[in-house]
Design brief:
By secondary structure, the chain is an alpha/beta fold. It contains 15 helices and nine strands. Strand 8, helix 13 and strand 9 form a beta-alpha-beta unit. The protein binds ligand G3I. Ligand G3I binds next to helix 14.
Length: 376
């Protein structure tokens, strides 16, 4: 197990020490030195920066040194997903989750557990259950998993990607085992059960595709606002809405419209987490320098838009260095068979040698500019 030296606590204390002697605006400027980590740059804007992590990374000391230097919050990638943590009915496999939770505790870094219910990625046994048994198993899943990790999780992605308007369901819901068994009430039920199981944890509704400024993205934004309101009216504790941020430059993005959507969401008194930020570069130039510059521009434009809204308190990338990206995985290639065989994605702030890319600088600058604006 990788043991840091409490890097994040020491950095935070140093930062607090320095900050106490400076006015807020000067503190933001003071935090903006090129050598500072992304975590420190984000902190100057009151934002917690982090990334997702797979349990395999714990055995990669060089990568973990980068993660511990840059990230101040971690999101589990596979460990808490049902196909991995509850592979068969009544059988739980906590090995991956236990290792990540232990690492986070030893290194004093908050851990986001992703995700309990995702109708796009249910294990086979769930889809074979009767609707009544699915409701029973939902409760067993929440009670068993949250009981084991109570008090050790920063936030739970209770429900992931609940919308797919293509099914034509009221509210734009994605059909699947949980929705088909309980309707949209599965979301409320899962959140209420989770609140009872771990009152200390923040509960997050994690959504995709809201970033795109086309009919689909605009429809998803309406669905998110409607569901959050209905959940709150039903007495659900919704601490944050996660907006994944898998950016695709081939799709339209309107910064002003997206900022307005986040401001409207913030009116519901929820925090907003950008939970899975990366940039798909298949439509960008193959030339590395040109592609890296284009990816950096995407990060700059997107973060400038989202950091306008003070309710954005977490920004996390989906992994941290290109070599760990899901866009490099066999799984992604299997769902995108026409990718050129020699195509190697470069979606993240750090490259295969764990060196900062233009995207990393773009993120740092965006955090610093936001820190100055928020400090004014
Ligand atoms: O580890 C097994 C390996 O042993 C086996 O040989 C191989 C067979 O294909 O599968 C491997 O597991 C795969 C795993 O990724 C590790 O590569 C799973 O099949 C595959 O389903 C899994 O895909 C993950 C996907 O979520 C589904 O869980 C991706 O890594 C992960 O990046 C992706 O992340 C999602 C978020 O949870 C939600 N938002 C979208 C995001 C990207 O799709």
């Amino acid at each position: 197990m990788t043991r840091a030296i409490g890097m994040n606590r020491r950095a935070a204390l140093l930062g607090i020490g320095a900050a106490l002697s400076l006015p807020k605006a000067a503190m933001a400027r003071a935090a903006c030195t090129p050598k500072m980590s992304l975590g420190a740059h984000a902190a100057s804007a009151g934002v917690t920066f982090g990334c997702s992590i797979g349990v395999d990374a714990l055995d990669d000391p060089a990568y973990m040194a980068l993660v511990q230097r840059e990230a101040r919050i971690l999101t589990t990638d596979l460990a808490f997903k049902l196909p991995f943590i509850n592979p068969d009915r009544g059988r739980f496999d906590f090995a991956r989750a236990d290792r990540l939770v232990a690492f986070a505790q030893v290194n004093e870094i908050p851990l986001r557990a992703h995700t309990l219910f995702w109708d796009l990625a249910n294990p086979e046994w769930v889809t074979r259950l009767s609707p009544r048994d699915r409701a029973y198993e939902m409760d067993r899943i929440v009670d068993t998993i949250l009981d084991r990790y109570r008090g050790r999780i920063h936030s739970w992605d209770v429900v992931n990607e609940p919308f797919w308007p293509g099914f034509g369901e009221p509210g734009g819901f994605r059909r699947g085992a949980w929705y088909d068994a309980m309707g949209e009430a599965y979301v409320m039920h899962a959140f209420k059960r989770a609140a009872a199981a771990d009152p200390s944890a923040r509960l997050v509704l994690n959504c995709d595709m809201s970033e795109r400024d086309d009919d689909l993205g605009r429809s998803i934004r309406v669905s998110i606002l409607r569901l959050v309101e209905r959940m709150q009216d039903a007495g659900c504790k919704v601490d944050a809405v996660g907006l994944q941020g898998h950016l695709d430059p081939s799709l339209p993005f309107d910064p002003g419209a997206f900022t307005a959507f986040l401001a409207k969401l913030a009116e519901r008194n929820v925090e907003i987490y950008i939970t899975e930020l990366d940039v798909l570069d298949t439509a960008l130039p193959r030339d590395i320098r040109a592609r890296d510059a284009a990816v950096a521009r995407q990060y700059a434009i997107f973060l400038a838009a989202v950091l306008e809204v003070p309710s954005v308190t977490v920004v996390a990338t989906w992994q941290l260095a290109d070599g760990k990206s899901w866009y490099r995985s066999d799984w992604y290639r299997s769902v995108m068979p026409d990718l050129p065989p020699d195509w190697r994605a470069r979606p993240l702030p750090f490259d295969d040698r764990l060196q900062g890319k233009p995207a990393r600088d773009a993120m740092a600058n965006a955090f610093c500019r936001a820190g100055r604006k928020r400090g004014e």
